[in-house]
Write a structure and sequence with these properties.
Helices cover 74% and strands 1% of the residues. The protein has helices spanning 2-28, 32-54, 65-80, 86-108, 113-132, 160-183, 185-195, 197-202, 207-233, 243-256, 261-281, 285-299, 303-307, and strands spanning 143-144, 235-236. A two-stranded antiparallel sheet has the order 1-2. The longest helix has 27 residues, at 2-28. Helix 10 (243-256) packs across helix 11 (261-281). The two termini are 14 Å apart. It is built from 13 helices and two strands. The chain crosses the membrane at residues 36-54, 66-83, 89-107, 114-137, 162-181, 208-229, 249-274, 286-308. It is a multi-pass membrane protein. Keywords: Cell membrane, Membrane, Signal, Transmembrane, Transmembrane helix. Residues 1-27 form the signal peptide.
């Protein structure tokens, strides 16, 4: 009960801080804070999606950047066709990412361990090179969006604050959805399949079907991050789905604590804040970031979220 109340309180505090940030930015007369925070929220959505399968399903995907890229290109492709509504962009991204996750997941889940990691990476790189080959959309150079997505036909998201709050609302909605999934019977079976798939199969559950369903849900959620990040940057390129982006997502989840959805959000927030802060101090910031990650993992195997857990026995 203590852990549940602590997580609820932490979630309220974290999302309240996000809600207050634009006002803080106005008080400091620093508009750049809103831009950076929108990027943080986008990656927090992707980290949340990854933690759903990594922390609860034990599936270490090194290809989740592909779904971010699919979401981003959904904005670019539909925008070029004259379809600018955010709802349409989200639906197209979710459908395309879910289909890609269904096909690649059905193959990847036939493997385990390092083989699963490598095959998800391979599929992501295939998607990367596919979009590199799309010369109509700039190939490797990418394409600049003509405008941001519209809401009900209105260019409301052209305002950075409106885009920020829209991204925050989506993050909160997906967080609540992920919490509901993990606490449901489906989530318990998924966790059981992670711990002992043979036993779960013996009691009448098919681990493969549950893992594949979770994989598809996770990919669809990550594509939402791509839609919002494309609007934030105003630019789409295959770099969205490069392998190092997948690695960064894994780092964010590990930093925040695997199997802790709020930890994934916090991990993405802290990782990108450190990237920005250390990047202003030195060009060798990845070295210091890596040292901090090692220290956190050595001190707490549950990442940053483990440091604040009150009920450790």
């Amino acid at each position: 009960m203590m852990r549940l109340m602590t997580r609820k309180t932490a979630a309220l505090l974290l999302f309240a801080a996000f809600a207050l940030l634009p006002m803080i930015a106005s008080a400091l007369n620093d508009h750049y804070l809103v831009v950076i925070a929108t990027r943080i929220l986008g990656f927090a959505i992707a980290a949340l999606a990854l933690d759903l399968i990594l922390g609860y399903g034990g599936m270490v995907s090194f290809g989740h950047a592909a779904y971010i890229g699919i979401g981003a290109y959904s904005v670019a492709i539909l925008g070029r066709a004259g379809i600018t509504d955010l709802g349409a962009h989200l639906l197209a991204a979710i459908a395309a990412a879910a289909l890609f996750a269904l096909v690649t997941g059905a193959i990847s889940l036939r493997t385990r361990g390092i083989y699963f990691i490598m095959i998800t990476l391979a599929f992501a790189q295939m998607a990367f090179f596919f979009f590199v080959s799309l010369s109509a959309y700039g190939g490797d150079d990418g394409v600049t969006l003509r405008a941001r997505s519209t809401l009900m036909g209105q260019p409301l998201l052209e305002d950075d604050r409106a885009l920020y709050f829209a991204t925050l609302a989506i993050l909160i909605g997906l967080y609540l959805l992920a919490v509901a999934i993990t606490r449901s019977r489906f989530g318990r079976v998924l966790t059981g399949a992670r711990e002992n798939p043979v036993r779960m199969q013996a009691v009448g559950f098919s681990p493969f079907r549950y893992q594949l369903t979770a994989f598809v849900i996770s990919g669809a959620m990550a594509s939402v991050a791509g839609v919002m990040l494309a609007n934030q940057t105003g630019f789409v390129s295959p770099a969205f789905m490069n392998w190092h982006v997948s690695g960064e997502l894994v780092v964010m989840v590990v930093l925040g604590g695997t199997g802790n959805l709020l930890g994934a959000v916090a991990g993405a927030t802290i990782a990108l804040m450190l990237e920005e802060g250390l990047g202003m101090l030195t060009e060798h910031w990845p070295l210091f970031f890596g040292l901090m990650l090692v220290i956190v993992v050595l001190v707490s195997r549950d990442g940053i979220s483990g440091l604040f857990r009150r009920d450790r026995g």
